Structures are given as C-alpha cells and as structure tokens.
Amino acid sequence: MDTLDIILTIVKVLVIFGGLMLMVAYMTLFERRVVAWIQNRIGPNRVGPNGILQPIADAIKLLTKEDVLPAGANKIIFSLAPTITFIPALLTIAVVPVSSSLTLFGRNITMVISDMNIGILYILAVSSIGVYGIILGGWASNSKYPLLGGIRSTAQMISYEVSMGLALVGLLMIAGTFSMTEIVNQQSSIIKWFVFRQPLGFILFAICALAETNRIPFDLPEAESELVGGYNTEYSSMKFAMFFMAEYAHIIAVSAIITTLYFGGWQGPILPPIIWFLIKVGFFLFAFVWIRGTLPRFRYDQLMRFGWLILLPLALLNILLTGIFMVL
Amino acid sequence: MLRIYFPILVLLAFAVITPLVMLIIPKILGKRESTPVKDAAYECGIPAKGDARERFPIKFYLIAILFLLFDIEAIFLYPWAYIYRKLGIFGLIEMGVFVFILLVGYLYVIKKGALRWQ
Predict the structure, then answer these.
(1) What are the tens digits of pLDDT across the range A82-91?
(2) CB A143 within 8 A of CB B51
(3) Which residues of chain A lie closer than 8 angstroms to B25, CB-CB?
(4) Per-domain residue ranges for chain A?
(5) CATH label of the domain that carries residue B72
(6) Is the ipTM reported for this complex over the cut 0.85?
(7) Under an 8 A CB cutoff, do B81 and A172 touch?
(8) Which domain holds residue B34?
(9) Has residue B93 been placed in a domain?
(10) What is the pTM for the complete model shown?
(11) How far apart are alpha carbons A204 and A167 in whole angstroms?
(12) How far away is chain B from the Cα of A151, in angstroms, using its nearest Cα?
C-alpha cells in the first residue's frame, strides 16, 4: 500500500461513515414523520422547511442538557456503556458493499470498506458486542428498573441471536461463501435474489433482526408501561441519545444487510447502483417504522416462547429443507 | 492482510472518536448542579429502598447457558454450510446425526420446563 492508497481508503471510510451518521440523524425525523402520518397527526414540521432541520435542533438541545450521574452508579462503566453499544452498531456497515466498484486515478476502488472473505461472520461477531453495553448500562446505574430492563434485554437478544445465526446457514449453503461482495455478485438478476431461494430463511432473519434491534413488537427492554424506560432510565443528555443513535445505526445496518443478502444489494437496471442500494435500504427502513406504527408489543413470556419454541425449530427445519433440495 | 483490515482500523478510529466527542461536549456545554434528590436512583418518585443489585430469577441464567450451547451449534454449522456442495448427501446425514443429538437435549430442556415463564 502506498500513500495514495491510504488516502483513498481514509476518504472512502469517511464518506461511508459520514453517510451512515447522516442517515442516523435523519432516521429520527423520518420515523417521527412516518409514525405521525400513520397515526393521522402532522409530526415535527416547525424547524426549517417541513421540519428538515429538526435533527440539528435535537442535537443542540441534547448537547446542552445537564449530564446527571446517579449517586450509586459506577462512574466509569456508566459512561462507557452507551459507547460500547454505539461503536459495534457503526462497525457493522464495514462489510456491506454500497455500490459497484469504480475507477479513480487509474485504480479500481471497491465501494465496500473492507471486502473480507468472512463478511457474515464479522457481522455476527461485531453486532453481538452491543449487548454488553446494554447489560453494563443497566447494572452500572444501580437502580432497579434499569437493571431489570438490562437483564431482560440481554436474555431477549441472546435468544434471538441463535435463531438469527441459524437462519443464515441456509443462505450460506446455497452461496458457498462468506464474502458479501461475492453474495451480491451471485444475485445478478431478480430471479436469482436469495429471498426467492430462501423465503423461510428471509422471514426468520427479518423477525430476528427486529428482535435484535429492540424494535416493536420486541421492544420489551423499553416497555414503558412496566419498566419505566428499561436500561436507559437513569441516563440523560447525550448518553441517553447515544443508546437511541445506536438503535438507529443498528436498524440502518440491518436494513443494509437484508438488502445485500436477500435482495441483490446494489444490483438493478438503469439507475446507478448506489441509488438502487439506497432505494432498497430505504424500503426496509420504512418497513421498520411501518411495523412500529402497526403492531402491539409482545408479553415477555410470549416473546421467549416464540424465540425458543418456534423460531429455533423453524431455523433448523430451513437448514434441513435447503439441504434436501440441494442434494436432489 | 493489511489491505483488508486497515480500513476496519480507520473505521474503528472514527467510530471511537465520535462517541467520545459526544461524551465530552455536554460536559462543557451543559450546566451542572447536583442535589441529593436529583442524583437519587429513580423509583417512581418515592425514596429508593435498598440496593438494586439483588437476586433475580434463575431463568435468565438458564437462558444464558442454552444460548452458549446453541450458539456453538450455530457456529459449528457455518464451516459445514461453506463446504456443503462438496459433502452432498453424506454431509446432510452427518449433520443430521449431530443436530438430532442436540434436539434430544432441547426436548429434555423443554420437558423440564426451563423455558416456561410464568
């Protein structure tokens, strides 16, 4: 690697990272507007034209708020917990190819931060670190509701992580590779999309993705009616916001992963690849908000029973069916 | 090697700096005025009773152990899935035996009521 390579790498990472942060900021506005639309309200539209500057106003408000540290809290862990949740959510995007490769300064630049051959393993490994932030945040607060919320949340996330990992096995059997770029290349036309070859696997993965991001109908960790606010009850100011930014970053990353694995990634006719990628990701972001606006919340025992007694056997069945179909 | 993991390091640097900056800015901009009542743990407005770190149901511990078992199973399936094309029917039967043994344990756990929540 020479200097130009290093500069190009840094610029590429900066562009993708900046794009992700921008999407995280505007996801808050998008969600509020869409939920308002579903509920027949107007939603935030005062700051700037159509409320377009609302995320900036929110950021300024949160940055100037007092940062309260509860008396019994463990200072270091209390401050680090939101960071631990936030960082993995941002790192997941590294292996997702956002566009086809382009040629610049006589070099071929792949539009993925790192085209590693173990992309899917990287995603599973990195995204599961986030759960540490939640359990540590709940524990460090030294308050009852956050601790209960943190424990519940951890149990939920690890339960659904098993099914999530198993749901992907079927896809891997067909694809025969862990590389995300390779998987996109295999889905060159719409009939080759993995969603048609792995319908059950896709449904299972989508359900587990909802549970992993702590979204309705699996948002037990922040069940306001029983646990006040869950693991983030004691948090204030930017630390509080960071948990939510992690959630939104996670939603965006999961949408990008679903797009890449099951819906052909950036591939599509006529329009440039990056536009296709954003359209597909945008659709799944909308679906996340749509589900939130439509469904009620599970009860905790239903949630656990659903995860262990329905999703897990179905994921194993999916592997068996895929295996039989491939042998035939 | 460097070509693959150097970009990850750059991304990690950005991903670490951003939240750290976000932790420091409120310390400069936000006002700080702590009172004993404000710093108390939230408990619906009444004075907090006892320590929060008490005993919690053993169910969560069981879930953690089950997670370990099944996550190892999932990881074990990954390399198998990678070379499934080459293994063919032989691989399917081999994995079927392995998963069957785990399923017996899984049924035992259900029968014992480890996943029953009241």
Answers:
(1) 999 999 999 9
(2) no
(3) 63, 238
(4) 65-327
(5) 1.20.58.1610
(6) yes
(7) yes
(8) 2-112
(9) yes
(10) 0.91
(11) 6
(12) 8
